[in-house]
Amino acid sequence: MHAAQIEKGGSVYREFSLLEIIEMECIKGRAFFSFYHNRVVGQHHASFTRYLGILVHDRNMCPLRVHSWVDIEEYKLQHMWEAVTDKFDSDDINDQRDHVLKHMRKLWNNWRGSMHKNIKSKELKGGNSSKAALLEKLNATVKENESLKGRLEGLESKYDELQSKYVQLAKIVFDQPSSPSSSDQQIESFNRLVY
Q1: CA pair distance 39, 96, nearest whole angstrom
Q2: Which neighbouring-strand residues pair with 185?
Q3: Which pLDDT belongs to residue 16?
Q4: Beta strand pairing status for 34-36 and 39-41?
Q5: Is 129 helix (H, G, I), strand (E, B) or coil?
Q6: DSSP code of 188?
Q7: Which residue, among 163, 53, 167, has the nearest Cα to 112 in the 3D structure?
Q8: Cα–Cα distance between 71 and 112 in angstroms, integer?
Q9: Which residues make Cβ contacts (< 8 Å) with residue 78, sequence separation at least 6?
Q10: pLDDT digits over 21-40, tens only?
Q11: DSSP assignment, residue 71?
Q12: For residue 139, which of 84, 147, 155, 175 sits 20 to 30 Å off, Cα-Cα?
């Protein structure tokens, strides 16, 4: 996020991104703090915890497509740790590596959980149907499909029957008889076909 200028009254204020604030607060590029009972204390403690949150939310630093924190490879954890030690320094920072990564794990799990909750709670695109309503619609569609298949088979059999009657009728009509008695026979056969 880049810095933006905002006018308030007659003054112009500059908004800084969180990374810019952290960089400005750092002494010689690295902020110094100390640990007390596994907690960060000192002037830059808030910047430190904000920076951990930034790292955890950054997909380039901390992978998103893993099921749990233990599935993250060691080299990626080392990369995140190096990013932390590049910005911050402490007398016993290397001794606190496991504790800091444990805190990052908690932040990562909370963030992923909130993302999952927000995605799951949103309605499906195109409607606000529940699973039961969708299942009911599916069952109705299946029944309708079976009904239409039955009707189609009935129509196809009627079509075949009418086609055979048409062929017989065409034979009767287009074959001209020479005797009147054969004409009566043809009318009788026609009546049998039709009725």
Answers
A1: 10
A2: none
A3: 52
A4: antiparallel
A5: coil
A6: H
A7: 53
A8: 14
A9: none
A10: 555 555 456 666 666 666 77
A11: G
A12: 155
The vertex-40 CA angle with 98 and 31, nearest 5°, equals 100
27 forms beta bridges with: 30
Whether 84 contacts 51, CB under 8 Å: yes
Kindly state the tokens that stand for 125: 């695109």
Q: Which of 47, 53, 35, 60 is nearest to 109 (CA)?
A: 53
What gap in Å lies between CA 3 and CA 20, rounded to an integer?
8
Q: Are 137 and 85 in contact (CB under 8 A)?
A: no
d(CA 80, CA 98): 12
Extract the tokens encoding 93.
Answer: 């920072």
Question: Mind listing the pLDDT tens digit for each residue in 117-161?
Answer: 666 555 545 555 678 888 889 999 999 999 999 999 999 999 888
Q: Quick one: tokens of 130?
A: 């529940």
Say which residue the tokens 């952290």 belong to: 22
